[in-house]
Amino acid sequence: MPADVAIGDGQGVGNTASTGDANVASYLVPVVPRVGAGPSVQYGFWIGLMMLATGSAFDGDLRRGLTEVGRALARVGPRRDHSDALLAQGLLLLWSGRLVEAEATFDAILDAGDELGPLLTRVSAGYSRADCRFRRGAWDAALADAEELIALMEAGDHDLVRPMAHGVAAFVHACRGNTADAERHLANGRAAQLRSDNTSGLLWLMVGEARIGSASGDHQRVVDQLGPLASMLRRSRVGEGVQPWRADLVEALVALGRHDEAADALTELDERTGSGGEQARIGAARARGLLAAALGDDPSAEAAFAAGLAPAAPAEGGPFLRARLELAAGSFARRRGRRRRRGGAGVRARRGALAGGAHRRPLAQRGAAPGGRQQRGRGGVRLGSIPRIGLDVRAGCRGTRDGVGAARGGVAGG
Length: 414
Fold this sequence. Notes:
This protein has 20 helices and no strands. The chain has helices at about 5-20, 25-30, 40-60, 60-75, 85-95, 100-110, 120-135, 140-155, 160-175, 180-195, 200-215, 220-230, 245-255, 260-270, 275-295, 300-310, 315, 320-340, 365, 390. Helix 7 (about 120-135) runs antiparallel to helix 8 (about 140-155). The chain is globular, with a radius of gyration of 22 Å. The termini are far apart.
């Protein structure tokens, strides 16, 4: 088969996927048996799988993408030249919130070193694993991955994936309250993005800058970054799991008193949480509870926090997002308790209600400590100050390579 026909097959798959055509499977599967025909055919097929993964994300149907990539891998079997297919699978798992499986898939590419795949595939797996580890709470490992990749790209004078690597490093530093380090990585990432003209890198940089705003309590900075991002993606069906950020937009809008806009942003978030896994679910619960509390709808706020705090797989939900949710719920419970006391009711926050049965003491008593250790209150934590988690709580996961994170200060003991 001529090379242009083979590559055309792959490009056709991606173009079909990106338009949301439901017949992608019927287009892709006939290409699979021809994979052994030669390098050019293989190249077209693997590129087609990567484009299929991206198209599935834009179409909001990650489950379909995973099914088709899984079928392709099953037909081909273990090969030294299937790294792009593994990368497609790993990305779809990451975007679906299946973080443990995603990390193992990226490991399979990276642990093989030069034996598996071209440089671009391996460095893409590198920043994707760093992002996966950040989401899981393994922040030390995420930062090490990102910095190793940055050094590799600098040594080879490559800019294409540096915005993503700098973005992950900025995520970690921002959420730990290390603003200067986060700003430095963002500045370097922007310079690399301009040199490479890699528009996809903008997502990482905009989200990174918004996370600095969230950590420092600069709500307007969050909105300035994420508002335009929401506008750009409004007509797409990209799920929240691709890069979770919409909950932070809702939170910032609530803090600024822009409740109607927050309600619209929450609607868009709810439409995109179906395939994002635990992190998307937890973020949406936090956003919904904060908005309801700001509007004075205590029953809805309590129900939202309770739903978010229902028992879940810790490795998939991530300790940091769980801590932010518990902090928001604890702040709500304290404020509600003070209102009741002022009204003479003297009623404590209901025991265990907000924790969904996962913890036996009310969050108002526990100071929203997910580790279960009682924390002394720091005074009246206002609902609008919840995004200042990086400063008010000095939250920062000291993640280990097995994905266990511990938050400092008032968030978690460790």
